[in-house]
Write a structure and sequence with these properties.
By secondary structure, the chain is α+β, with helices and mostly antiparallel strands. It folds into two domains: about 45-270, 2-Layer Sandwich (Endonuclease, Chain A); about 285-475, Endonuclease, Chain A, CATH 3.30.870.10. Helices cover about 35% and strands about 20% of the residues. The chain contains 14 helices and 19 strands. It has helices at about 1-30, 70-80, 105-120, 145-150, 170-175, 205-210, 250-265, 295-305, 325-335, 360-370, 410-415, 430-445, 455-460, 465-475; strands at about 45, 50-60, 65-70, 85-90, 125-130, 155-160, 220, 225-230, 240-245, 285-295, 315-320, 340-345, 350, 355, 375-380, 390-395, 400-405, 420-430, 455. The strands form three sheets. Strands 1-10-18-17-16-11-12-15-19 form a nine-stranded mixed beta sheet, sandwiched between helices. An eight-stranded mixed beta sheet has the order 3-2-9-8-7-4-5-6, sandwiched between helices. The longest helix is centred in the N-terminal third of the chain and has 30 residues, at about 1-30. The N and C termini lie far apart (about 55 Å).
């Protein structure tokens, strides 16, 4: 009996040690120090009105036909071809995998081709491409479009996601203690979660995927111009509605600095980055702009909303809205008699797969329950594509604020788990960038020359108890992309 009792006690001691290690692992990786240069707010730069441009892609219906008013990747490819000294790309989804159900635009192939042809014409062009391992499905296969660029001699860097904090609190602890020790050997044999046309993957790829974290940035930088986007060069995303800003001048130094930080902690060759600062003789005070990444985006958004005054107007165009700090700021703004208009994706579709409206349906249900007359919500009228925009516009009486880029308004995107890049802009209402963004939102809100948005009730009536429970469970166990 004594021996049996000793073994039982020993098992409990061993179990307690494992639990203690598990708690220590998840706590450390949840709150560990970020790599240097991550979660960055640059100094404010002064730009002339012709050094900043607003671009967009809109897919909408007109006279029962789908219309594609898209310009972002035309401008991206033009910017690439005009590069003479260096080209830095940080692109999240960069592949041509689709469900095969539509004739998708070949944007990944066109971008890859633009880079390769530019490198052929300009052998001294220094090209750095930073991306996410999602394009190789976490090591299961090559990334075709990226490999073409690498074969031309570009410095290709896959972001070291292990260095980032863990958003999936419970699962990532198990991953780090057990699954992460297994290598990525052998051929894939499981269906690829990206698309049916993508190569098969290993079980380990699925296990790593469940950590659900990413370098979600979408930036392009040359010695002449930079682009901050919500758009991915991903064929299956080719019909999505998106936004982008193209900038010139000294603010490019901040974009370079933010990307150099990713390369440094991911083991890239930082000597490839330009070391000569970009100067600007045209600097004026017409537009003030700042680069913000990761949680500094949340700071910028909350501050801009908090600074809105009675009778100001706030527009938010967003794919995912779930960040609690931003939601609280929206509620507070409506209580100050600030008019808030939300244009949201109904979260019904993801690359051909049906979704159930999470997180936007339960979040908007929560907001509308308060019955504030200063809050209005419209859904973007999507078909098989997404309203993938991430844009805030605060319209004051004389001066307005814009925050736009790659970051969804979710904890995963705003709380230093994913890598994100946005631009924060302030200018008088008569500046072209402000007029263009104002016109963009008014066009969608009023359905000018087409059908862009629909009434809140069209999708909200489909919020069942099942969907709400699923939302709560997903948030609780943090196994979502929001």
């Amino acid at each position: 009996m004594k021996k049996r009792s000793w073994y039982r006690r020993k098992r409990w001691i061993l179990f307690s040690i494992v639990i203690l290690i598990y708690i220590s692992v998840i706590t450390y990786h949840r709150f560990k120090p970020l790599p240097e240069g991550v979660s960055y707010a640059s100094k404010v730069h002064e730009l002339s009105s012709d050094e900043i441009e607003f671009l967009y892609d809109l897919t909408y219906d007109k006279d029962n036909e789908e219309v594609y008013d898209h310009s972002i990747f035309d401008e991206v490819n033009k910017t690439i071809k005009e590069a003479d000294e260096f080209l830095i790309l940080d692109l999240f989804l960069f592949n041509g995998y689709t469900d095969g159900k539509r004739d998708y635009p070949k944007i990944s192939e066109e971008l890859s081709k633009a880079v390769v042809e530019t490198m052929e014409k300009k052998p001294d062009l220094n090209v750095i491409l930073i991306s996410d391992e999602v394009n190789t499905t976490y090591g299961s296969h090559e990334a075709k479009q990226i490999k073409k660029i690498e074969d031309m001699g570009a410095e290709v860097i896959f972001t070291d996601l292990e260095r980032l904090r863990d958003p999936s609190l419970f699962y990532s602890g198990v991953w780090r203690m057990a699954f992460s020790w297994f290598g990525q050997d052998g051929k894939g044999w499981l269906p690829n979660p990206m698309a049916p046309s993508a190569p098969k993957v290993t079980a380990r790829s699925y296990l790593e995927l469940l950590n659900v974290k990413a370098n979600h940035r979408k930036t392009v930088i040359t010695e002449d111009a930079g682009m901050i986007m919500s758009a991915n060069p991903h064929d299956a995303s080719g019909f999505h509605s998106n936004i982008a800003f193209k900038v010139k001048g000294t603010i490019l130094n901040e974009l370079i600095k933010s990307e150099k930080a990713v390369a440094a902690y991911s083991g890239g060759d930082v000597s490839k980055f330009p070391d000569k600062p970009i100067s600007n003789a045209k600097a004026t005070e017409e537009v003030k702009a700042q680069i913000v990444t990761e949680s500094k985006i949340q700071d910028s958004v909350v501050t801009a909303i908090d600074d809105a005054k009675e009778d100001d107007l706030i527009y938010i165009g967003m794919f995912y809205l779930a960040d609690r700090d931003i939601i609280d700021a929206i509620v507070d703004a409506t209580e100050r008699a600030v008019d808030v208009r939300l244009i949201l994706d109904p979260n019904q579709n993801a690359f051909g797969q049906q979704k159930i409206g999470l997180p936007n349906l339960p979040i908007t249900a929560e907001l509308t329950k308060q019955g504030n007359k200063h809050l209005s919500i419209r859904w973007y009228d999507t078909n098989k594509e997404q309203f993938h925009t991430k844009l805030l516009y605060v319209k004051g009486k004389e001066e307005s604020t814009i925050v736009g880029g790659s970051g969804n308004y979710t904890s995963r995107n705003m709380d230093d788990y994913n890598m994100e890049t946005n631009i924060h802009i302030k200018a008088s209402n008569d500046q072209k960038v402000m007029e263009d963004v104002d016109r963009y939102f008014e066009r969608m809100w009023t359905n000018e020359d087409g059908t862009y948005t629909v009434d809140y009730e069209k999708y909200q009536n489909s919020l069942s108890s099942y969907k709400y429970v699923m939302y709560i469970l997903q948030k609780l166990f943090q196994v979502t992309t929001y």
